[in-house]
Amino acid sequence: MKKLFLFFILPAVVNSLHAQPGKTTVTKASVSPLKNMKDSASYAIGLSVINFYKQQGITKLNSAMVTKAMNDILGNKKPLLDDATANGVLNNFMMALQAEKSKPNIDAGKKFLAENKKNPGVITTASGLQYEILRDSAGAKPTAADSVTCHYKGTLLNGTVFDNSYDRGQPITFSLGGVIKGWTEGLQLMSVGSKYKFWVPYELAYGPNDYGPIPGGSMLTFEVELLEIRKLAQQ
User: Fold this and answer.
1) Cβ 156 vs Cβ 218: under 8 Å
2) How confident is the model over 48-61, as pLDDT tens digits?
3) Lowest CB count within 10 Å: 31, 56, 77, 139, which one?
4) Rg (CA), the chain
5) Rounded Cα gap, residues 67 and 131, in angstroms
6) HEC-encoded secondary structure of the chain
7) pLDDT for 81-100, tens place per residue?
8) Could you tell me the pTM of the whole model?
9) What domains are there in the chain, each with its CATH number?
C-alpha cells in the first residue's frame, strides 16, 4: 500500500519542488462539456456509431460531413443522398478499404504461386489451383455431389496454422458442394487413402475479405487426406 500511495502522490511532490518560493501553484479543475443527460446521451451515441465503423476499418472521416448529415436528418432537411445511394456509397467505400488492406496478401500469394508452379511435382490446373501428390492411391474419386470425410491442416503463407483436424483428433465430413472452390475442385482429384497438398489462390478460397483468422486476399495451403466418400444415397 505504501508504494501505491507514493505513486499517486509523487506528481504533487515534484510540482512543489519546482514551484518558486512564495508562490502558490494553482491547478484548474477540468470542466466536463457534458452538462446534462441529453449531452451525455448525444456523446454516447457518437461513441457507439464511430466505434462500430472503426471496427469495420474506417479510421478517417470528414467529421464536418458526418455532423451535417446528422443535422440534416434531425432538422428534417432533405439529405444530400437518399438511402439507396448512401448504402451504395458506403458499400463501395468499404470494398475499396478492404481491397487496399488485402492487396499485400494478394500480391504475396500471386508471387508465391508463380514460383511454386516451377517446382517438380507441383501441378497447376486451369483454375490456378496447385497441388502435389504426397501419397497416391487407386480407387473411386468423389464428385461435387458427394460428401467426404477427411483429415486436413490449413496454413497461411507465413506458416501460421489456422485449422487442423489432426490436432482435434477428429476428421471432418462435409459436402463438396458447400466448401471453398479450391476444395470442391481439389478433392475430386483424390482417391480414398490418398494425401495431397493444395495451394489455393485467394479467388478459390475466401476472396478479398477477412474470414475469421484468415486475412482477406490470402492464398491458403492445405494438406488433405481423403478417408471416405459418402454418396448421396448413403446420407
Assistant:
1) yes
2) 988 988 887 788 88
3) 31
4) 29
5) 53
6) CHHHHHHHHHHHHHHHHHCCCCCCCCCCCCCCCCCCHHHHHHHHHHHHHHHHHHHCCCCCCCHHHHHHHHHHHHCCCCCCCCHHHHHHHHHHHHHHHHHHHHHHHHHHHHHHHHHHCCCCCCEECCCCCEEEEEECCCCCCCCCCCEEEEEEEEECCCCCEEEEHHHHCCCEEEEHHHCCHHHHHHHCCCCCCCEEEEEECHHHCCCCCCECCECCCCCEEEEEEEEEEECHHHC
7) 999 999 999 889 888 888 88
8) 0.71
9) 116-234 (3.10.50.40)
CB 172 within 8 A of CB 149: yes
Tell me the three cell numbers of residue 96: 475499396
Backbone angles phi, psi at 167, to 5 degrees: -65, -35
- Read off the amino acid at residue 88: G
